[in-house]
Write a structure and sequence with these properties.
The protein has about 300 residues and is an alpha/beta fold. The protein has helices spanning about 15-30, 50-55, 70-80, 95-105, 110-125, 155-160, 185-200, 265-285, 290-300, and strands at about 1-5, 30-35, 80-90, 95, 140-145, 165-175, 225, 230-235, 240-245, 250-255. The chain has a domain at about 1-210: Rossmann fold, CATH 3.40.50. It is globular and about 65 Å long.
């Protein structure tokens, strides 16, 4: 059993320390552990070129046009049974370098996309996706903030595991924690997160979420988007319902059929893929028109791009 720790923080800072504390807990449970710091890697931002999707859906395998350390990181994550991620909280949510990893995960790492790509490859004799895309995995998050401005962190973090449909075990946010290395109760909780993950990795088929119950009964998110018609959507899994007060407690209520639309279910992923396919088809047709080409030229010719002098 292998547990990988990933820190998105500064060298020897709080995130490094708490990631290692969780790894200590995992090691106590018999895990082999490894530690990576994201800032030591060359990780380029996703450009949205969709080369990965084109390759995936044409039986050419799972390719990325960017050449950096992401493939190395991906292999490390794929080969682990469980992953612990420690993330500093910037501007109310996860730090940008973590978002870069999330962006690079989708859509080429999306479980639904790879299910469809595998079928296409089987039918056409093309290259099938790496079988590790379909391996079940557990993951936990530790978010560390310097104040109480931390309310987006849990949702930001779990966007990572939603793409490959990995099971989240803990998703803990520590506000007011600039001095966390000296706070024994918080360190104890971090240690427990590592132990929980290792136990879950030993029995992945039965692994279950152990953290804060949140407001969404499905994904445990506390972040919601309020629509003008009075309905609300969970910002993480996307299911739609209403907020109601029962016994002085706020509850998110939704019809059961909404679960088929959740972004962390295979049915929800397939529905999302159909929506993308429809809109991509419309765009391809639009690009053939003279009016589209004229408008593109208008914007291309309007102004020169400013670049730094080197």
């Amino acid at each position: 059993m292998k547990i990988l720790g990933i820190s998105a923080g500064t060298k020897n800072g709080n995130n490094d320390a708490m990631c290692k504390e969780a790894l200590m807990g995992a090691k106590e449970m018999g895990a082999e552990v490894e530690f990576i710091r994201l800032h030591d890697l060359d990780l380029k931002h996703c450009t949205g070129c969709i080369a990965c999707v084109k390759a995936l859906m044409s039986g050419k395998g799972n390719l990325c046009a960017l050449k950096d350390d992401f493939e190395w990181l991906k292999d490390k994550m794929f080969d682990a049974d469980g992953i612990i991620v420690a993330v500093p909280i910037f501007e109310n949510g996860a730090a940008g370098i973590f978002h870069t990893v999330v962006d690079r995960f989708g859509p080429r790492m999306d479980y639904g996309n790879n299910v469809v790509a595998k079928k296409i490859a089987e039918e056409t004799g093309g290259k099938e996706p790496d079988p590790r895309h379909f391996k079940k995995k557990v993951i936990s998050y530790i978010s560390i903030g310097g104040s109480d401005w931390v309310t987006r962190a849990q949702c930001d973090c779990e966007m990572l595991s939603m793409t490959p449909m990995w099971t989240t075990i803990d998703n803990e946010v520590f506000p007011w924690s600039k001095n966390i290395i000296m706070e024994d109760e918080k360190i104890k909780r971090v240690h427990e997160i590592g132990k929980n993950l290792a136990l879950a990795a030993k029995d992945i088929e039965n692994a279950q979420y152990q953290g804060d119950k949140g407001m969404c009964p499905h994904c445990h998110s506390r972040n919601f988007y309020f629509h003008n018609d009075g309905t609300v959507s969970c910002c993480l899994c996307g299911i739609k319902g209403k907020m109601e007060i029962e016994n002085n407690e706020m509850k998110f209520i939704f019809p059961k059929e909404q679960l088929e639309h959740a972004h962390n279910t295979l049915s929800g992923k397939f529905l999302h893929m159909d929506d993308i396919k429809t809109n991509e088809g419309k765009l391809m047709e639009t690009k053939k028109s003279d009016e589209y080409k004229t408008r593109v030229e208008k914007y291309k010719n309007f102004i020169e791009i400013s670049k730094p002098i080197k």
